[in-house]
Write a structure and sequence with these properties.
It is built from five helices and no strands. With about 140 residues, the protein is an all-alpha fold.
Length: about 140
């Protein structure tokens, strides 16, 4: 196992990745959803349910970061939920494409990236949660 995965630095890196990915998702998705018409036009044939799912998940990405940083089980569970919803959205998007729905190729690339990133975060966090002891607290959520 790589050395960075042997200590809490790995979990902190995953937490920072989750927050940064979430902030970028909120900025980009929010720009298309709530920005000027020119921004929506530049987005091309975006698929509204994919855009809304990803935008709303951006808040969950940001929330998962502190849970992972603090080595809490709820952070791991939230990462699993994020991956599950991302996969469900990806499947629905694939059905949309199969039925001839308009879409942008970059959406397919972005959904692949999201799935890979959250799959990596979840799997790495599971390994790290087992190898790094949690700080003692009086309550666990």
């Amino acid at each position: 196992m790589p050395k960075f995965l042997d200590n809490r630095t790995g979990l902190r890196a995953l937490a920072l990745l989750a927050v940064a990915f979430g902030a970028l998702t909120l900025k980009e998705g929010g720009g298309v959803l709530f920005g000027p018409e020119a921004t929506r036009a530049a987005a091309g044939d975006y698929v509204p349910f994919v855009l809304w799912s990803n935008f709303l998940l951006g808040f969950a990405y940001v929330a998962a970061g502190p849970g992972l940083w603090l080595r809490r089980r709820w952070g791991l569970r939230l990462a699993a939920l994020i991956l599950a919803i991302t996969l469900a959205t990806f499947v629905a998007f694939a059905v949309h494409i199969a039925l001839g729905g308009a879409h942008e190729t970059r959406t397919l690339v972005a959904m692949s990236l999201r799935t890979l990133v959250w799959g990596f975060i979840l799997l790495a966090a599971r390994v790290l949660m087992r190898t790094v002891s949690r700080p003692s607290t009086s309550s666990e959520s």
